[in-house]
Amino acid sequence: MNKNVSPARAAAFEILRRVTTEDAYASNLLASNQYKKLSREDHALTQELVLGVLRWQAHLDFLIEHYSRRKLSKLDGEVAITLRLGLYQLRFLSRVPPHAAINESVNLAKERKKESAAPLVNAVLRSAQRDGRADLGKTIKDSLERLSVETSHPLWLLKRWIARFGEAEARDLALANNAAPRTAFRFNARRHSIEQTRLWLKEHRIEVRDSALTPKAFTVKGGSLPAQSEPVRDGWIYLQDEASQLIARLAASNLKSEISDLNVPPKVLDTCAAPGSKTSLMASLLPEKSLIIAGDLYDHRLRTMKELNARLNVNGIKLIQLDATREAPFAPESFDLVLLDAPCTGLGTLQRHPEIKWRLTEAKVGELADLQKQLLRNAARQVRPGGLLVYSVCSTEPEEGEEIIAWFRNEHTDYRDMTRERLTELGIEPWPLMTKTFGARTYTHGQGTECFFFCVLWKRK
Questions:
Q1: Which of 103, 225, 340, 448 is 20 to 30 Å from the Cα of 438, by its Cα?
Q2: Percentage of the chain with pLDDT > 90?
Q3: Positions marked active-site
Q4: Helix/strand/coil percentages in the chain, nearest 5
Q5: Does position 1 have pLDDT exceeding 50, yes or no?
Q6: Environment class of residue 444 by beta-carbon count within 10 Å: exposed (0-12), middle (13-18) or buried (19+)?
Q7: Coil, helix or strand for 457?
Q8: How far is Cα 166 from Cα 157, in angstroms, rounded to an integer?
Q9: Among candidate residues 169, 161, 140, 65, the one with its CA nearest the CA of residue 357
């Protein structure tokens, strides 16, 4: 690599190239062994550049077309990535000197054997530097297109949100998606005492506070807690979104009240369990002799779960390879609790996975809803009378949430929506979260968490 291109920018370029050409996920690449040799500072800059470019891609592409006076489709793909990186630094990273952003972008183009494009890269970035942070979006006449550029979200998704929330709230949600997520976690007393972990955090000047949403969940208020830090690496704490923790607690914390014979350990099935965040939390909340079966379609994802359970010192979870689109290999009505955290669009995770919004189509929402119905129908067969069925998706769209439950309850009249009651039992005020029909929701611009839909269903005896 050219010595005039920093390791962070070279790594960011390569990750963005793979995200674009291979449909890879940036978070997976950033966590891969390939980039562990980067210094802490370089890794932090790489992450900032990659996620920043993906979050603001539509905005950056508008700037590219404005300053280059040509359509993005006419540009070489690697040149477009180089320009996005340069423009992101100029527009969003005030701590990066403009000359460094420009010079390294030009050198990056040359390193990628795009010497003929180097003058274009230089010209575009110098023009952008002269304009500073001028709001060029004002020149766009169509209000929806202007909002798409300003918030860097696809037109079809903003149109949906405006219809549901109005333009102001749609804007708030989109802009919240473009912010870095706050760090949320839970303590893991099975690996290290909570008191000692708190002491470590204090010694390293990491300030934490209780979650405003979820009992026994915490967020980082000051300092940094990266994945490579000792408490995370050694399983003293586990990084997990507050809403994700809430769903596991709604399922497991209230389960004892639904078990008719308290002398019999509960039986739990998690049908689409990987990567295991909710499963491992449920295991820590349930009696030690509970039967917890966690299934996933793919063997490599089960291996990841096995590694996670070992790191957290969580025992008693039986992992099985399971195709949840088919009938489960158990007798019907075998479980006190069935959790279905269903495959979904992932539109609730755009802070962490911004590339999703550029890959997803509106048609895919309906396709996934059909899959979710099939999964929910099969999961329901395993719930005993008096047991619980918990359904969740990290999506903003009602087709994957409220409409799924409406369809399900029309087909299964023996199930009752108990979400409000369960939230109340956990000491959570339910009304800010409840939807107008079924279940509850969290939103990035509201609760500061990932956008989740969840519903706790009780099967009548």
A1: 448
A2: 88
A3: 394
A4: 50, 15, 35
A5: no
A6: buried
A7: strand
A8: 13
A9: 161
Contact 383, 332 (CB under 8 A): no
How far apart CA 34 and CA 402 sit, in angstroms, is 41
Per-residue pLDDT tens digits for 318-350: 999 999 999 899 999 999 999 999 999 999 999
User: Residue 182 has what pLDDT?
Assistant: 95
Let me know: does 292 contact 282? Beta carbons within 8 Å: yes
Q: Is 439 left (phi over 0), alpha (psi -120 to 50) or beta?
A: left
Q: State the DSSP code for 86.
A: H
User: Whole-angstrom Cα distance, residue 33 to residue 228?
Assistant: 12
The C-alpha angle with vertex 139 and arms to 133 and 141, in degrees rounded to 5, equals 140
The answer to whether 268 touches 280, Cβ cutoff 8 Å, is no
Cα 208 from chain centre:
21
Is residue 183 within 8 Å of 225, Cβ to Cβ? Answer: yes
Residues 283 and 292: beta-carbon distance below 8 Å: yes
DSSP secondary structure code for residue 4 in this structure: T
What is the DSSP-derived secondary structure letter of residue 207? Answer: E
How many of the other CB atoms lie within 10 Å of CB of 172? 18
The answer to whether 246 and 262 have CB atoms below 8 angstroms apart is no
Whether residue 43 contacts residue 67, with contact meaning beta carbons closer than 8 Å, is answered with no
C-alpha 14/C-alpha 9 separation (Å) is: 9
Instruction: Give the helix ranges, DSSP H, for 152-297.
Output: 155-165, 167-177, 194-203, 230-233, 242-252, 277-285
Mean pLDDT score, 27-38: 90
- H or E stretch covering 304: helix 299-312
Q: What is the pLDDT of residues 72-116, one digit of tens each?
A: 999 999 999 999 999 999 999 989 999 999 999 999 999 999 889
Quick one: how far is CA 401 from the chain centroid?
A: 17
End-to-end CA distance of the chain: 67
Cβ 230 vs Cβ 193: under 8 Å: no
Name the DSSP letter for residue 181.
P
Query: What pLDDT sits at residue 255?
Result: 67
Residue type, 280: S
Angstrom distance (rounded) from CA 232 to CA 227: 6
C-alpha distances out from residue 264 to 289, 290, 419, Å: 9, 9, 25
Question: Cα angle at 454 between 255 and 179, to 5 degrees?
Answer: 125
Nearest to 102, CA basis, from 114, 119, 77: 119
Q: What would the two tokens of residue 292 be?
A: 């917890």
Task: Choose the weakest-confidence range: 60-64, 116-120, 257-261, 400-404.
Answer: 257-261
Q: What is the pLDDT of residue 134?
A: 78
